[in-house]
Amino acid sequence: MTTPLGPGDFVSGYTLPYILVAIVQGTLLLVVGAMLGLEIDGSVALVALILLMMAVFYVSLGMVLGALLNVAQVAGAYAVVLLLTIFGGAWFDLEEIGGVFLTVGDGLPFKHALDATRAVMADGAGLGDVAGDVYWIAGYTIAVSGLAILAFKRRMLE
Prior knowledge:
Blueprint: H1 7-35, H2 44-68, H3 71-87, H4 94-97, H5 99-106, H6 109-123, H7 127-157
């Protein structure tokens, strides 16, 4: 906090190592999946792009929550992330449930990331096919990264 670095520098410096962790994690999962019979019909690079954007989103979200909440409250923030994942359709098909789950899911990046990744991996969809979902993910990632910078700046001024 005493260095001449700005909040954007700190957020970037914190995010970069986690991007490397996400790349290693994603690579290992794809390799293990391939050993177990996973076949990707579409572009692995497009799947990697989607997952990388979500990794940056999650790191930024963690930074926002960490900057705004105290140590005791951060534990409860994981429940929020779990709820957001549920509304993303990771464990059940939101199209079949409909209602509030589908409405909330459509407004969050998680459903879009799952839909785009599934479409690329299972159906061979290209960027043009999943561009709408990618825009949602990119928009949320940029917005939450900006919030992380603002939250960290606020924390630095305190």
